[in-house]
Please model this.
Amino acid sequence: MAAYTPWITQQYLKTITPISTNIDVNEIANHIETATYINIRELLGKNLYEDINTKFVSGTFSAIETELFDILKQTLAYRATWLAIPFLGIKIRSKGVVRLNDEFAQSVSLDDMKYLRNELNNRAEYFENRVQEFLCQFSVDFPLYTNDTNPRNQIYPNFNNPYDSDIYIDTRDRENIRRNRYLYGPNGSQPGNTY
Model:
């Protein structure tokens, strides 16, 4: 695997997300690579992810790829921040796991942290949904999204709708859900599965 090149900068994180301007952004920047591999690569699938990454490194995006990349950057910013939240105030040190405490800062409760993570997750899911809709709308321009060029070592895109509201709607069609999971796997990613 080639060396990782981050798609977003620390300044971009401060501009897009609700991160305080006086925070050490390195605390969050360390999570950009993790969010890229856990969320972005699964969202796009390995083939399209590698294609976009290669074009990013070489600076050879087309206009439509630039439009997609702008949405991906927002997704990545919120996902990296979402991943970093639990580790900002709690650190693993030589003395064990410690909570950092500033003399003028007050630690938030676990419920407050969960609320913040939930809000960041909602924003990330919104942009993930926009990426999927964009790729479906312009599928001719992104054939690697569903193309099964190398069935070995392939990470297929997750075709599930990532955006989820807090309202529960009971689905009575459980047999259909079970059948679809059997046919398409837990994330609906069947090789060659198209919209």
Remarks:
- The chain has a mean pLDDT of 76.
